[in-house]
Amino acid sequence: MTHPHPHAPLVESDRVAGTLYTDPALFEREMDRIFHTTWVWVAHESEIAKAGDFKMAWVGRRPVIVSRDRRGGINVLLNRCRHRGASVCETPKGNGNGFTCPYHAWSYGLDGSLRGIPYPEGYEDVVEKKDLPLQRLKVASYAGMVFASFSEDIEPLEDFLGGARLWIDRFMKQGAGYPIKVQGEHRFRFNGNWKIQLENTTDWYHFPIVHRSWMSSVDAETASMLSIMTDESAVTHALGNGHSVSISVAEHADLDVDDGTEKLQDRFSHIVEELSKDMPPEQVRRIVRSLHGAGFNLNLFPNVAMSMSFFRVLRPVSVTETEIRHVALGLDGGPEIVNRERLRIHEHFQGPFGFGSPDDAEAWNRVQRGVAGGVDMPILVNRGLGREKPNDLGQPTSHATDETGMREAYDMWNRMMTDDN
Amino acid sequence: MTTEALDTAVAELPLDDPRALAAVSLIWREAHLLDSRRYEEWDGLWASGGEYVVPIDREATDFASRLNLVYDDDRMRRMRVERLTGGFSISAAAAARTVRSVSRFVVTGREDDAIEVCSAQILVGYKREETLVLAADVTHRIVFTEDGPRIARKIVRLVNSEDAVTASGFLL
């Protein structure tokens, strides 16, 4: 590592070193000690709902396959043939009986077991198929969120998620009685370090500034819903293990709670009218109140966020390049008009032609370019330090525009990257 | 005229049909306006009720039921123009400079008052020391109104629409 001040820590309580965005050696260490060690999000269960379903994903820089086997189990397999190393799958998603290497046709089952080797005579007394399955990662799910780890002895997923579990449960309530399903995703890249995006999910400070053009394109009710700067109920909690939640619309933090005073937005009146034809008014209200998703952004260290109505998944490509996926969600088995409206809301903000994402990407690229000009200067993450206090669960809490979530993420980063922990 | 998919029967550009030349002329003018970022004028090329789509799934024909990169009706398209010209978007202010070429025209449908033209678009963009290329199959449905030819539908199928797409502040 080439830290300009070898005696200064990379992470302090109110600042981090600029080299965190620029140092290739730090990036290599992050891959080994964070992404190839801890729990990394790879899929939502709706993406691999049926036996034989699979999708390609990444754990850090390693390509993996997430598959559903005939017994209903979820497998996460390194996408690398055990023979001479070719990838065994290059289909982003699909359904099949297994994976066959294109090079010498070694074939593997959905659970990664090696099933067949052509012309096996040459391997007599040399290879036992049972010894050469695709490398399997440890897998666990919580509330439909599938995580994988290269560490066999990693702590249980539920312990790792800890205080975030309450918010994952609350996030899924936007299904309004239906399970959540993935409806598609936008993918784009920006020239910048992955942690610039990690910070952004609980950064409501940037929202009215970077997203002014989006704010001016939505109806007044939606803009007012996100009047975070002046809303004292908009707070961020540090949840431990690098996770944090930033509440933007407090009355939608728990969508099961409804005191009846909230007026449904006029923009959804056509949906209310359609649903009311064969649904009781309480159910219509419950669904329509959930159309913007949950009233918060939950940031799960290191690679996934559950952000209002979508998942944000980041993939570090290099120290200066990051790929982002914005995964659109819908109601599995729910009314078509609702799922279509959710798609339109997603398209409005997200993706390379959305009214929000390109402005985020521009800001993040400007961070990368600016930091490269002065790596010996710190990145400040001190906003709100003077007003941050523990809530009744003991979680450091401050206003949603404060940098409490970033401090939590960098504390975890520091623990994972430092030898004495 | 329901053709949208790329594998539909195609006809050579009917050079004896003045509407075909008018359609191609409109498509070239559109490309010029987009490269020049003259979005207000571009908006004026559209017929009322126009549909502007950049799908993710290249095979899709039912766009409403799936996620797209762009799925604009008149209202969304006008908001998009407002966003790109309003001065509040930092990505629009720092938009890549683009030069695009549209060619390989074939006619994929003809009606009394409309023509459907499929073409290839190659766009080169430049921003901050980087040059990017985006290639797409484009389908235009051009309607002939009292005011002349107008775009009723435009579908831009990027070759890499299912992968990460880079675009900064410009339109396809």
Automatic annotation (TrEMBL), chain A:
**Cofactor(s) this protein requires:** Fe cation
Rieske domain location: 39-148
- Coiled-coil region(s): none
Keyword Chloroplast included in the entry's annotation: no
Q: Which UniProt keywords apply?
A: 2Fe-2S, Dioxygenase, Iron, Iron-sulfur, Metal-binding, NAD, Oxidoreductase
Q: Which molecular-function annotations from GO does this UniProt entry contain? A: 2 iron, 2 sulfur cluster binding; dioxygenase activity; iron ion binding; monooxygenase activity; oxidoreductase activity, acting on paired donors, with incorporation or reduction of molecular oxygen
Tell me which InterPro entries the record gives: ARHD_Rieske_2Fe_2S, Rieske_2Fe-2S, Rieske_2Fe-2S_sf, Ring_hydroxy_dOase_asu_C_dom, Rng_hydr_dOase-A
Tell me where on the tree of life, at the top rank, the source sits: Bacteria
What Gene3D superfamilies does the record point to? Naphthalene 1,2-dioxygenase Alpha Subunit, Chain A, domain 1 (3.90.380.10), Rieske [2Fe-2S] iron-sulphur domain (2.102.10.10)
Query: Which Pfam families does this chain map to?
Result: Rieske, Ring_hydroxyl_A
Q: Which SUPFAM superfamilies match?
A: Bet v1-like, ISP domain
Instruction: Tell me the first and last residues of the signal peptide.
Output: none
> What protein is this chain from?
Aromatic ring-hydroxylating dioxygenase subunit alpha
Species source reads Streptomyces phyllanthi
Automatic annotation (TrEMBL), chain B:
* SUPFAM superfamilies registered for this protein in UniProt: NTF2-like
Query: Which GO molecular function terms does the record list?
Result: oxidoreductase activity
* Keyword Oxidoreductase attributed: yes
Q: Which GO terms describe its biological process?
A: 3-phenylpropionate catabolic process
Keyword tags: Oxidoreductase
The superkingdom of the source organism is Bacteria
Keyword Oxidoreductase recorded: yes
Q: To which protein family does this belong?
A: Belongs to the bacterial ring-hydroxylating dioxygenase beta subunit family.
Entry protein name: Aromatic-ring-hydroxylating dioxygenase subunit beta
**Organism of origin:** Streptomyces phyllanthi
Lineage of source species: Bacteria, Bacillati, Actinomycetota, Actinomycetes, Kitasatosporales
